[in-house]
Structure prediction request, 474 residues.
Amino acid sequence: MPKIIIVGGGIAGLAAAVHLKAGAKAHDKTVDVLVLERNQRIGGKILTEKIGDYLVEGGPDSFLPEKVWTVNLARHLGLEPEMLPSNDKFKGTFIYSRKRLHSLPEGVMLMVPTSFWPMAKSSLISWPGKLRMGMEMFMPRRRERGDESLASFVTRRLGRECLEKIAEPLVAGIHTSNPDNMSVLATFPRFVQMEQKSGSLIRGMVDAMKSRPHATLSGPPPKPGQARMTYFMSFKKGMETLPQACADAIGKDSIRLGAVVKSIEPKGKGYVVILDSGEKLDADHVMFASSAYDSAEMIKNFDPGLASQLRAIQWSSSGTVTLAFKRNDVSVPLKGFGFIIPRVENRRINATTYSSIKWSYRAPDDMVMVRVFVGGGHHEELVHELDDAGIISMALEELDTVLGLKADAQFSKVYRWFNGMPKYTVGHLDRMFLLDRKVAEHPGIHLIGCSYKGIGIGDCVHEAQIAAEKILKA
Ligand SMILES: Cc1cc2nc3c(=O)[nH]c(=O)nc-3n(C[C@H](O)[C@H](O)[C@H](O)COP(=O)(O)OP(=O)(O)OC[C@H]3O[C@@H](n4cnc5c(N)ncnc54)[C@H](O)[C@@H]3O)c2cc1C
Prediction:
């Protein structure tokens, strides 16, 4: 019976363990899986807290059902009745520009306009900017092969104004990255394929929507017994429902909390995993589901070259500030699911989600709960420098500036994610290719998680399942 040790009880490590156990069972085999998590809780960055009457998300607040692996995992775990669609009757995104909020024109898919009239009527983009975006259909394809920054790609195809007002806050914002050095190939390969295949993003996106009738934000109608899918999905009791259900499926005996892995050493055809307590555990396979810089620390004595490749991945720090106000104190309209702020506006926050409007079950009916994002692509220093009181008062000042919201917060909670998001900078895919080659020198070592091939929960689940499948086949 192969012994598999998984380092890290975030969603990647847990999804791998679930897949290994379920896969082995399906083939009437057994595997010995042990998840080692240094913290006293599982879930990693997926962290939900019930504080009084509030359900607060510290990290992700949703998953994208478009990345089917999360939905499939949730269904496998029996979570169908727990899945929660967003309250789409309120949906909409607003962008702060020239001291006011503008609606993101309908039909803009990530950054590509697909409808003429909403774009023509939009107050967000100037007329020269709109014309430049329309000219995208006549822009030549890029001749050179290889990677390019998101900023260069968008400016070349859709113009500078689209980069600054739409792509940077919306697209780079997802990655909490700076578009000037963010790899378009690693983050949005679909756009590069569209340019090469259709010669135009607008044409490519319109064709994609025609060939996939449900590529709209509302998605296909649910089958009987299935949850209704919206573009963003969550769980009634919050995102941590997913890692908790994984942990239940894996079983208590296969998870050790407070187990800090210090290093690994080769032993025969396998490895010995050494904990900081001095305890040594033998394994045939070791899956590192920890962030690349943590994995580098554990691997550095075993393979210094691999460790330095892992350290080459850069990270950004960000924070979330959840605030709740009495509904009667909120005298300004809160439209849509929230707003995003382009970097060029030089504000101290990046975005705000109206959590209790976007989701049900988050706050009492007489309260409004919002979540403000700080750091990431810009003003990252605030996450390090401000204490909780400072970050809360800064967020309140910014909400006053952007929305004119002057209410007192009745509840607040700050979470900080130091080096919480990997930055896929230009050349990331080439570095991942070399990393894969280096890892292949050590059969039985596997790298999974958000550091490598996708930051979203769906990507982490998918990569974990691929690695688990490889072990099952071996
Ligand atoms: C603020 C924020 C908002 C986000 N929003 C979204 C969203 O809405 N939707 C979405 O899809 N994604 C979102 N993401 C991204 C997503 O949450 C993460 O990419 C994903 O959860 C990472 O999972 P992981 O398993 O790779 O890593 P992690 O969750 O970081 O898990 C790694 C685990 O390894 C453990 N570990 C590390 N070193 C050791 C060691 N030496 N010994 C033992 N254990 C160790 C850690 O303690 C940790 O628990 C967001 C991220 C952040 C920070």
The pocket of flavin-adenine dinucleotide is lined by residues 7-13, 36-39, 44-46, 59-63, 260-261, 289-291, 294, 298, 318, 320, 417, 420-421, 449-450, 455-457, 460 (CB under 6 Å). The domain at 107-211 is CATH 1.10.3110.10 (protoporphyrinogen ix oxidase, domain 3).
